Amino acid sequence: MYTTHHVRGEHLLWLTPILYIWLTSINAPIQNFIVFNDGNFYLFNFFSALVIFLLIVALPFYMHAYLRQHETRSIVISWLHIVPTLLLILAIITIYAYAPPIEISWRFSTLTNPNFTQWQIYNDVAIALFGTLLIIQVVFLLYGLIKIYQLKADESSNEDTDVDSYSFEDNQVMINPAYKYTWIPKPAEPFN
Question: Is this structure's pTM higher than 0.90?
Protein backbone atom coordinates (compact mmCIF):
# COMPACT_ATOMS: atom_id res chain seq x y z
CA MET A 1 0.00 0.00 0.00
CA TYR A 2 1.31 3.40 -0.94
CA THR A 3 1.58 6.06 1.72
CA THR A 4 2.63 9.70 1.52
CA HIS A 5 6.17 8.46 2.15
CA HIS A 6 6.12 6.76 -1.28
CA VAL A 7 4.57 9.65 -3.22
CA ARG A 8 7.32 12.24 -3.58
CA GLY A 9 8.08 14.93 -6.13
CA GLU A 10 11.49 13.51 -6.94
CA HIS A 11 9.85 10.38 -8.33
CA LEU A 12 8.86 12.53 -11.30
CA LEU A 13 12.56 12.59 -12.24
CA TRP A 14 12.40 8.99 -13.41
CA LEU A 15 8.68 8.49 -14.02
CA THR A 16 8.15 11.41 -16.42
CA PRO A 17 11.00 10.54 -18.84
CA ILE A 18 9.90 6.90 -18.92
CA LEU A 19 6.29 7.76 -19.74
CA TYR A 20 7.07 10.57 -22.17
CA ILE A 21 9.73 8.67 -24.10
CA TRP A 22 7.47 5.63 -24.28
CA LEU A 23 4.59 7.73 -25.66
CA THR A 24 6.92 9.55 -28.03
CA SER A 25 8.38 6.30 -29.35
CA ILE A 26 4.83 5.22 -30.23
CA ASN A 27 3.69 8.53 -31.78
CA ALA A 28 6.86 9.95 -33.33
CA PRO A 29 7.32 9.66 -37.09
CA ILE A 30 10.84 8.29 -36.50
CA GLN A 31 12.29 5.48 -34.40
CA ASN A 32 15.89 6.71 -34.39
CA PHE A 33 17.25 10.23 -34.23
CA ILE A 34 20.55 11.76 -35.21
CA VAL A 35 22.64 14.06 -33.02
CA PHE A 36 25.35 16.13 -34.69
CA ASN A 37 28.09 17.30 -32.33
CA ASP A 38 31.74 18.25 -32.92
CA GLY A 39 31.64 17.18 -36.56
CA ASN A 40 30.32 13.69 -35.78
CA PHE A 41 26.88 12.17 -36.19
CA TYR A 42 25.49 9.95 -33.43
CA LEU A 43 22.49 7.72 -33.94
CA PHE A 44 20.20 7.11 -30.95
CA ASN A 45 16.95 5.32 -30.47
CA PHE A 46 14.43 6.27 -27.80
CA PHE A 47 15.46 3.50 -25.41
CA SER A 48 19.10 4.62 -25.42
CA ALA A 49 17.96 8.23 -24.84
CA LEU A 50 15.88 7.03 -21.90
CA VAL A 51 18.88 5.23 -20.37
CA ILE A 52 21.03 8.34 -20.77
CA PHE A 53 18.43 10.58 -19.11
CA LEU A 54 17.87 8.14 -16.26
CA LEU A 55 21.61 7.93 -15.62
CA ILE A 56 21.81 11.72 -15.57
CA VAL A 57 19.03 12.08 -12.97
CA ALA A 58 19.99 9.05 -10.84
CA LEU A 59 22.38 10.83 -8.46
CA PRO A 60 20.13 13.88 -8.02
CA PHE A 61 17.20 11.53 -7.29
CA TYR A 62 19.18 9.85 -4.51
CA MET A 63 20.31 13.25 -3.25
CA HIS A 64 16.64 14.29 -2.97
CA ALA A 65 15.90 11.10 -1.02
CA TYR A 66 18.88 11.58 1.29
CA LEU A 67 18.04 15.20 2.04
CA ARG A 68 14.39 14.29 2.67
CA GLN A 69 15.38 11.44 4.99
CA HIS A 70 17.58 13.75 7.07
CA GLU A 71 15.01 16.57 6.92
CA THR A 72 17.45 19.11 5.51
CA ARG A 73 15.95 19.73 2.10
CA SER A 74 14.32 22.94 0.97
CA ILE A 75 11.01 22.40 -0.82
CA VAL A 76 11.58 25.45 -3.01
CA ILE A 77 15.04 24.36 -4.13
CA SER A 78 13.85 20.79 -4.69
CA TRP A 79 11.09 21.94 -7.01
CA LEU A 80 13.44 24.44 -8.65
CA HIS A 81 15.51 21.41 -9.57
CA ILE A 82 12.68 19.01 -10.52
CA VAL A 83 10.60 21.27 -12.78
CA PRO A 84 13.42 22.63 -15.03
CA THR A 85 14.94 19.16 -15.27
CA LEU A 86 11.68 17.68 -16.51
CA LEU A 87 11.00 20.54 -18.90
CA LEU A 88 14.48 20.24 -20.41
CA ILE A 89 14.17 16.47 -20.88
CA LEU A 90 10.76 16.86 -22.50
CA ALA A 91 12.04 19.66 -24.77
CA ILE A 92 15.10 17.69 -25.92
CA ILE A 93 13.08 14.59 -26.76
CA THR A 94 10.40 16.67 -28.52
CA ILE A 95 13.00 18.48 -30.63
CA TYR A 96 14.63 15.27 -31.83
CA ALA A 97 11.38 13.35 -32.28
CA TYR A 98 9.62 15.97 -34.38
CA ALA A 99 12.51 17.73 -36.16
CA PRO A 100 12.37 17.42 -39.93
CA PRO A 101 14.05 14.25 -41.19
CA ILE A 102 17.47 14.61 -42.79
CA GLU A 103 20.07 12.57 -44.54
CA ILE A 104 23.64 12.68 -43.30
CA SER A 105 24.93 13.16 -46.86
CA TRP A 106 23.24 16.58 -46.99
CA ARG A 107 25.96 17.95 -44.74
CA PHE A 108 28.61 17.24 -47.36
CA SER A 109 26.56 18.67 -50.22
CA THR A 110 28.05 21.64 -52.10
CA LEU A 111 24.64 23.30 -52.22
CA THR A 112 23.07 24.45 -48.97
CA ASN A 113 20.01 22.41 -48.18
CA PRO A 114 17.36 24.42 -46.30
CA ASN A 115 16.07 21.31 -44.55
CA PHE A 116 19.55 20.53 -43.22
CA THR A 117 20.03 24.13 -42.09
CA GLN A 118 16.72 24.07 -40.21
CA TRP A 119 17.55 20.68 -38.67
CA GLN A 120 20.99 21.94 -37.63
CA ILE A 121 19.36 24.84 -35.75
CA TYR A 122 17.11 22.37 -33.90
CA ASN A 123 20.12 20.18 -33.17
CA ASP A 124 22.13 23.10 -31.78
CA VAL A 125 19.22 24.16 -29.56
CA ALA A 126 18.83 20.59 -28.25
CA ILE A 127 22.56 20.33 -27.49
CA ALA A 128 22.44 23.66 -25.63
CA LEU A 129 19.44 22.40 -23.64
CA PHE A 130 21.33 19.18 -22.85
CA GLY A 131 24.28 21.21 -21.56
CA THR A 132 21.90 23.25 -19.41
CA LEU A 133 20.40 20.01 -18.08
CA LEU A 134 23.84 18.78 -17.04
CA ILE A 135 24.66 22.10 -15.37
CA ILE A 136 21.42 22.00 -13.36
CA GLN A 137 22.23 18.47 -12.14
CA VAL A 138 25.76 19.47 -11.09
CA VAL A 139 24.50 22.58 -9.28
CA PHE A 140 21.88 20.55 -7.40
CA LEU A 141 24.46 17.92 -6.43
CA LEU A 142 26.76 20.67 -5.13
CA TYR A 143 23.84 22.09 -3.14
CA GLY A 144 23.17 18.62 -1.71
CA LEU A 145 26.82 18.12 -0.77
CA ILE A 146 26.88 21.48 1.00
CA LYS A 147 23.73 20.52 2.93
CA ILE A 148 25.29 17.17 3.90
CA TYR A 149 28.45 18.96 5.07
CA GLN A 150 26.36 21.38 7.14
CA LEU A 151 24.41 18.44 8.61
CA LYS A 152 27.63 16.65 9.62
CA ALA A 153 29.07 19.86 11.06
CA ASP A 154 25.88 20.45 13.09
CA GLU A 155 25.95 16.87 14.39
CA SER A 156 29.58 17.16 15.50
CA SER A 157 28.96 20.53 17.14
CA ASN A 158 25.93 19.10 18.96
CA GLU A 159 28.09 16.28 20.32
CA ASP A 160 30.67 18.81 21.55
CA THR A 161 28.06 21.01 23.24
CA ASP A 162 26.50 18.01 24.98
CA VAL A 163 29.79 17.38 26.76
CA ASP A 164 30.37 21.06 27.46
CA SER A 165 26.89 21.65 28.90
CA TYR A 166 27.09 18.75 31.36
CA SER A 167 27.31 20.06 34.90
CA PHE A 168 29.11 17.94 37.45
CA GLU A 169 27.63 19.98 40.29
CA ASP A 170 24.17 18.67 39.47
CA ASN A 171 25.25 15.06 39.81
CA GLN A 172 25.76 14.15 43.49
CA VAL A 173 27.32 10.80 42.65
CA MET A 174 30.14 12.55 40.80
CA ILE A 175 30.72 15.00 43.65
CA ASN A 176 30.63 12.40 46.41
CA PRO A 177 30.85 8.83 45.13
CA ALA A 178 29.96 7.55 48.59
CA TYR A 179 26.60 9.38 48.36
CA LYS A 180 25.02 6.53 46.43
CA TYR A 181 26.24 3.90 48.86
CA THR A 182 25.57 5.63 52.17
CA TRP A 183 24.09 3.12 54.56
CA ILE A 184 21.62 4.32 57.09
CA PRO A 185 20.76 1.64 59.66
CA LYS A 186 17.14 0.87 60.34
CA PRO A 187 15.84 1.43 63.85
CA ALA A 188 15.74 -1.74 65.85
CA GLU A 189 12.40 -3.38 66.32
CA PRO A 190 11.38 -4.18 69.88
CA PHE A 191 11.18 -7.84 70.96
CA ASN A 192 7.84 -9.12 72.14
Answer: no
